[in-house]
Every structure is written in C-alpha cells, then in structure tokens.
Automatic annotation (TrEMBL), chains A, B:
Lineage: Bacteria, Pseudomonadati, Bacteroidota, Cytophagia, Cytophagales
GO molecular function: isomerase activity
Keyword field: Isomerase
Keyword Isomerase: yes
InterPro entries noted in UniProt: Cupin_2, PKS_Associated_Protein, RmlC-like_jellyroll, RmlC_Cupin_sf
Organism name: Anditalea andensis
Domain Cupin type-2: 36-94
Name this protein carries in UniProt: Mannose-6-phosphate isomerase
Length: 119, 119
C-alpha cells in the first residue's frame, strides 16, 4: 500500500493514447495517460468511463455536442455512448474505469492497447 | 451528462467530514469532502477506498505507520484495513469508492453520515 504521486507517474512516459495503470480497487482501474490529437470514435458497451483532467484541456466530442474539460474537472461517459476525445495540445488525464475496459471500446484497431503497463 | 468542476463543488459547502456525491459510475461513487482534525479509526469490510488530494495535506494513519498525501497524490486503502484520516489544516479530497461505503465503516457513531447529499 503505497501512495501514488500522479505527477511523478506522468514523468515516466511521453507517448500519447497509451494509458498506464497506477491503481486498482474494487475491480476498477485507475489509469493515467497523455493525450494529444484526435482519438477514434468509439463506445464501451458495458463500462462507464471517467475522465479527470490533471493538466491541460480535453475536448470530448459526442455525436450531437462536445464537452471541454480543464484542470480539476471530470466527465463520466456512460456506457454505450459514442464519444471521441480530442486534445489540441497535450493533456494529462486520470481515468477511472472497470478493469475490463479496452481503450478503443468497440473499435478495435491501431489505437487499441490491449496490455497496459502498470507503473 | 454534465462535466463536474471539482473546485466549484467545493465552494458549495464548508463543513468537515461530510462527503458529497458528485458522480456515479459502475456502482462506484465519486465524492468530495473537506476534512479537518482527526477522524475515527475504522475499516471497511468489503470496500477498497481511494483518497485523492485536491488541495492540502492529509495524513492517513495506520496502526503501524502513516502516509502523508499532498495535492495530486492518492492512496488506496484496501478493505479490512484499519485507518484514520487526520488533517492538521483543512484539506479538500476526492473519494472513489463503492456506493455501499459508509464513511465510518465498521464504527457507527456521531461521525457517521448515512445519507449523503448529491451536489
């Protein structure tokens, strides 16, 4: 049982769209990631997903609108909801989601990360 | 589906040791709370509990050691682990835990908050 310093974890990697696992509780994972550019449209059939912004600005696009998130703000994307994260500049995020969650949800492809590192 | 600004939520109340619910996903609740002083020793039989520090310093005491948490740091307290949060000065925290979690765990008493407000 060790504390996790988010900023220290973020210094351990620099690639984008490749979440790292930093904690696990009650079958849920805590992840951190750096995002920049446009992700793929996708949804998660069975998992709600929480995006919490550590530093920067993240746009979460939906088919009919978008939500802009800044430091210390979060959004819960309900399961089954198509969404696409977009970051004009690099943004650091913390994610909370079930351990079963695949980053690209129902859109398996080149952005998919099946095995995530634990850091 | 609305974004949550943690700092705005924290401005809505000033009492200590009285968590508010700010989000729900996958049977888990996201809560915010202001803490100051010493809480009661307790454990949660079935729930792991995550403390994330928004602003300030929180000591989490265990029977054999303590962990000091600062901004952007978190600790997961595993179920069954006796702990006592202590804050010398006011600290603002975000909690992530199952919807079944009672703040005082197995120590029902005057600090217990059974019905939490959703803000």
């Amino acid at each position: 049982m060790e504390k996790v310093k988010i900023n220290e974890k973020l210094n351990l990697f620099s690639d984008h769209w490749n979440p790292r696992i930093v904690g696990e509780l009650n079958g849920q994972l805590v992840k951190v990631a750096k995002l920049k550019g446009e992700f793929v449209w996708h949804s998660h059939e069975d998992e709600d997903e929480l995006f919490f912004i550590i530093k920067g600005e993240l746009i979460i696009e939906f088919r009919d609108r978008q939500v802009i998130l800044k430091d210390n703000e979060f959004l819960i994307v309900p399961k089954g909801t198509e969404h696409r994260p977009v970051a004009k500049e690099e943004v650091a995020v913390m994610l909370f989601e079930p351990a079963t969650t695949l980053n690209t949800g129902n859109q398996y492809g080149e952005m998919t990360r099946e095995k995530l590192d634990k850091i």
